[in-house]
Amino acid sequence: MDDFGQSSTKMDSCNVCRHDGKTTPATSWCSVCNDAFCSECLKLHNKMPNLRDHEIVDLLTQGRRKSAPHPMCKLHKDKRIELFCKDCKVALCTLCCSIKHRKCDDVDTIEHMNPLVKEELLQKTRRLKGNVKSTARVMSMAQSQIKELTRNAENVKTQIRDTHRAATEVLMKKKKELMDQVDRSTDRNIQELKAFIKSQEIDQQMYQQEAEFVEKAVTTESVADMYDVYESAAESNTDTDTDAVSRPTSERVIFTHDMDEVRASVEDIQLGHIDIVKDVSDRTSSPRLYHTVDCHTENVLNFVRDVTVLTVACEKVIVITDSGNNVKAFYGLKSKPHHKCLTLSCKPYRLAKMSDSQVAVSVPDKKMIAMIGFNPDPVLLSTMTTKHKHLALAFLSQSQLLASNSEVKHSLDILDMSGNVLKSVNTGIVPLADFIHVTRGNNVLVSAGGVASLVCVTGEGEAVFTYTPTGDRALRYPHGIATTSTGDILLADWDSRKVIQLTESGQFVRDVLTDQEGLQCPSGICLDSDGLLYVSCLNNVKVFKFTQ
Questions:
Q1: How confident is the model over 254-285, as pLDDT tens digits?
Q2: Which of 14, 229, 441, 497 could disulfide-pair with 217, CB 3.0 to 4.6 Å?
Q3: Of 198, 203, 199, which is closest to residue 238 (Cα–Cα)?
Q4: CA distance 375 to 317
Q5: Nearest one of 517, 477, 508, 516 to 490, comparing CA atoms
Q6: By C-alpha distance, which of 43, 244, 274 is closest to 152?
Q7: Right CATH number for 8-113 from 3.40.720.10, 3.30.160.60, 3.40.120.10, 3.40.50.2300?
Q8: CA–CA gap between residue 331 and residue 341 (Å, rounded)
Q9: Can you point out the beta strands (E) in 314-420?
Q10: Cβ neighbours of residue 460 under 8 Å, at least 6 residues apart?
């Protein structure tokens, strides 16, 4: 809706009379001519055949606002647009319809089409606004990825510098050992020569004194003194050949080396390898087995129930619960692997990562949840007793956990750190959740081996989606759940020996891992900050990285 004319003067006075120099008050407005008229000029306006169909607004009764001007045909300027051709998707006048659209099958009136067109445009507006939000979210994710890539590059560079420093320290140590050996040998030889020189200085002084004494006796006129000196000189052996005196040997230090061999040895030194790891959410990526952690550490063969990954003192620590009473931590993913074990009073089941150095562990038979810290060895920090047995766990915040209630069907409990139930959430068709996972949108993913579905509900228990495929893709025994940085869902299926990938809204993407990758009975799964995927398979944990 537009305001009348360009100014209040144009609306208040008749535009026709103004051309004659008069200021007659306007009483009407023609929305087509875009002019104000007095009552007399309006009569002349309405007598014109081409103008009489124009929309007229009474300024006295309808105020200073006018209704939307009726659209006029761009081709036939004096014809109103009254029709809409659905075949050609164009608004037209009756003349255009009779000339150019006679063969069209579906032509309707503008009045009938207006609500339909308006509703379609409103829907398009909603879609465009949704696209705006979606684009903003994608751009935000891309910005986050840039920050993550920058942070990752700095971390890798720091690791390279640390490795180079360690290798340099080894070379510097070898250099110092050789230099010290040269110094020790040279110093010993120099000290021997200095001691020899000192003894020769004493002999030289003695020879000088005796020579002066003999010379004095020869030059004296006393024959008796001369013979006395002669006799004493005969008794002392003063004619020793000083050139024949045993001198210490002069030792030279020789450094033997082969520069070609040194260069070859240095070139053979490997500071490490750079691997370009893609995110599993990149659907062009392919999995490659990176490492297998053998969790069979005792004589009793226990299978792995759940797995998560921590980062303690810049080292990755794989934490598992097994079918015994153990929580185990495995260190040194490839170099010098070792493990530590913490034995609980009863069987632990599921894990929830609380921080980089702490996990929560469900112990349902004791109606207990244990808090275990790693520094770097596992230590029992505290326990909390709950009213019911809780199986699956998920982290909500430092003060809240989400746990599946094994005694109340279709129920997840939000617990505080004292074990009190703050709120319960309905799990839909899943009576008892084996695994739960909280998405980045704070929705809850629920799986259970006895239900061939993956269920997603809100924090209020409202259904978001249920993934129940059929045929070859049917779930046979769904277990562990994880989500990628982009929101994609990973689900382990025990019986079909697969890990499948879904979109955030629950649409199938692909089979990420199958038994062709050596997957046997996959149970717990998780992702680390480097994009490595950890899958517990019977009594081991398989680690996969994704490459192009």
A1: 888 778 888 888 777 777 777 777 778 888 88
A2: 229
A3: 203
A4: 11
A5: 508
A6: 274
A7: 3.30.160.60
A8: 11
A9: 315-322, 326-331, 338-343, 351-355, 358-363, 368-374, 378-385, 390-397, 400-405, 411-416
A10: 425
